[in-house]
Structures are given as structure tokens and as C-alpha cells.
User: Fold this.
Amino acid sequence: IQQLFNLSDEQMEFQLLDRLSFQRFAGLRDSSQIPDRTTIWTFKERLIKAGASESVFETVNRQLARHGYIARGGQMIDASIVQAPKQSLNKEEKSLVVEQNAMPADWSPPKRRQKDLDARWTKKHGKSYFGYKLSVNADKRC
Assistant:
């Protein structure tokens, strides 16, 4: 799934938590079984070191093809930006929020509720946006 949807380890963890279809595909019965990003990274590294990553990917592709799905043919892709209100953070807050993914301890509860710590700056067609990337990738069924 991660390779087909071009997801980072962090995005893979989020999508497994968010999408039941990804959980079913991976054979996970509930959210307590979902690996975190570090476990995902470690698993991929072990596959690469063992020289098994290519054969695993080919096996999954064969199974998908057997069920009528071709991961590289007839793809429909949509990438949208969902904008969020811009955040005004000082350097210390920005360092804590962006680099350490933490919230400053001195923020009051009302201030905490108004801050969106998950939104990030990105560019699309040379224009800067603050918000979320929303990507959809659908394959043609044979």
C-alpha cells in the first residue's frame, strides 16, 4: 500500500489508522494492531537487508492482478489542498510544534484549542498554502 500510494512511513501510519480499507488489506482487525511509523520503517529495512523487498512487492502485484487490479495502469490522480487558518507562532513555538511535534506547556486551554498543529506549509504550482494535502489515486479495474 505504501509504495502504491507513495506514502511516507508517517503517512502510512496515519492512513492505516484512518482507513478501514487499508486495515482490511493489511489483515489488521483493530487499531491496536496497527504498527507505528518506526515499526513500519524497521520492517522495510529488514526486508531490504534480507533482499526480499522486490519479491514481496512482485508477489503482491501478482495477487492484485489475479483479482483484476493493475496498480500502474489507468490511474486517476487528484491532489488537492485543504487550506487551514494560518498560525502565528514565534520561533520557539514553531521549533517545538514543527520539529518536535509538541505543544508549548505555557499555552492556555483556549489557545490550545485554536491551534492546528497538524497543518503544514506546502507549495502547489509555485503558490504557497497552509493546510493539508488531500490526494486520491484510483486504479482501473480490468
The longest helix spans residues 53-66.
